[in-house]
């Protein structure tokens, strides 16, 4: 009984983080149509690392990544037309799906992009 109570208390405080490690395929609607991106997430405690690949900008390394319960956040740097751009991602995990929002660092004139990723 004490063990069950202990496990319930840990769960209530968010100690059991969502399982984000692995490969996720994401899609989004952008200004020029549908986009796809693959994420390979690695988790060590609350630190999120890995890489992401898209046909449009190639491979990028995930930096500054964090997992906080069902929430994730990270940054990638992409090279687009000889310019390096930082993109910040934030999302919420729900089972085998993550709803992510990406935004160019600093905002600029670009609206955020809403992604839906499914675990592979």
What is the string of SSEs from the N terminus onward? HEEEEEEEE
The SS-based structural class is mainly beta
Report the CATH superfamily: Calycin beta-barrel core domain
Q: For the largest beta sheet, what order do the strands appear in spatially?
A: 1-2-3-4-5-6-7-8
The CATH architecture designation is: Beta Barrel
Strand content: over 45%
Averaging pLDDT over every residue, what do you get? 87
Tally of alpha and pi helices: 1
Shape: globular
Q: In CATH's first tier, which class applies?
A: Mainly Beta
Low-confidence stretches: 4-15
- How many distinct folded domains? 1
* Radius of gyration, taken over Cα atoms and rounded to an integer in Å: 16 Å
> At the third CATH level, what is the topology name?
Lipocalin
Task: Give a count of the beta strands, DSSP E runs of length 2 or more.
Answer: 8
Relative helix content: under 10%
Largest sheet: 8 strands, antiparallel, barrel
Distance between the termini: 37 Å
């Amino acid at each position: 009984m004490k063990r069950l109570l202990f496990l319930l208390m840990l769960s209530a405080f968010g100690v059991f983080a969502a399982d984000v490690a692995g490969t996720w395929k994401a899609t989004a609607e952008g200004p020029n149509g549908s986009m796809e991106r693959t994420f390979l997430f690695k988790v060590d405690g609350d630190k999120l690392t890995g890489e992401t690949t898209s046909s449009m900008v190639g491979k990028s390394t995930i930096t500054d990544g964090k997992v906080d319960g069902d929430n994730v956040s990270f940054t990638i740097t992409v090279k687009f037309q000889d310019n390096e751009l930082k993109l910040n991602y934030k999302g919420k995990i729900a089972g085998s799906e993550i709803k992510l929002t990406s935004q160019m660092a600093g905002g600029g004139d670009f609206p955020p992009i809403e992604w839906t990723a499914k675990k592979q």
